[in-house]
Amino acid sequence: SVTIGDPLMLYKHHSLLRSSAVGNFKTLVRNVTTDPGMLVYLNGNQNTNTAPDENYGRELQELFTLGKENNPNYTEDDVKAAAKVLTGWRTDEATTTSAMVAAKHDTSSKQFSSFFSSTVIAGGTGDAELDALLDMIFNKKAAVSQFIVKKIYRWFCYYTIDATAQANVIDPLAQLFQDSNWEIKPVLDALLKSEHFFDALNRGCFIKSPLDLAVNLCREFGVIFPDAAADYAGAYNMWEFLRAASAISNQNFADPPNVSGWPSYYQPPQFYELWINSDTLPKRNQLTDILVYYGYTRGSSNIKIDPIAFAQKLSNPGDPNALIADSLAILYRVPVSDTSKATIKTTILLSGQTSDYYWTNAWNAYIANPTDSMAFQTVYMRLRDLYRYFMNLAEYQLA
Description:
- Helix content is about 50%, strand content about 5%.
- By secondary structure, it is mainly alpha-helical.
- The chain has a two-stranded antiparallel sheet.
- Helix 10 crosses helix 11.
- The longest helix is centred in the C-terminal third of the chain and has 20 residues, at about 375-390.
- It starts with 6 loop residues before the first helix and ends in a 7-residue tail after the last helix.
């Protein structure tokens, strides 16, 4: 966002990604290539026939379509040739659009390596050469399909791809991707409906990103935000609090560290484990503690977890066993042992007592007279401590 420096360009780029997320991947790549925001971000709008800029030509192959893992692979000369193909695209900040400036385009023929079957893209118009470049890249069907399918798999299933997953999931999906003429939806449909996707080993195997943590906890607990239509400033301030909390945990919204994105999504061997360290874990816990204990207030606006309102939506909050089970079904992605549940119940909900009615009586007393401050405080403090404890356990960090 800082590099692009234009809110409309940034909005248009995000809208392109969202509208194309389950569409045709080849079409998406073409549209991203000429997207005004991307032209600014990777210097495409400075790429000219007198001084070709290799930035986007490199990332088009290395990050967006082919990856680094193929052998033999594209060469530095392929990057230079692609840069020449892409010369001449320019942005118009006044209209937030892009167009080809013919006088800035390199019209010479571009020679590619044996990796691309020694293809020559004849000099011509910028649009025609771009189409030829993408046709050449996507003719590397196995390389492109394997690269993208692995990215999808690592996002939705698990970051480790063993030989079994490669043979039974990746290879068939990659073939499906090719056979579907690069349509993304059939691949997602097959993966998300597969038995493999629902395998217990693939549950709770990611660490939540800082943004996932911040946004999800507000959704899980039904945190009420100011109405943006009536109080835009108040709503914005609350959103900004979550953005800032995410940023200090190493994920600043709309501002990835580089064109590769956040390392936790792509950097082997740790991948998502990179979100957690001795600095970020206390900050993540601080966010949940603030929201369940005090809330965040700025001006006249406030957001806060309401533990009683959350409990009241459960099936049987007067039963401490059902309350804990129902709460964990919403908050956790992994099971908790019965022994742990019993210990949590006794320690927090029963305040050290042994009989379930110690909680049931307290809950019923509050329901019978919710304006009774003592009855309210008894229930409120136990629920507050219960949910704070749940969010401070390691299990809550898993997605």
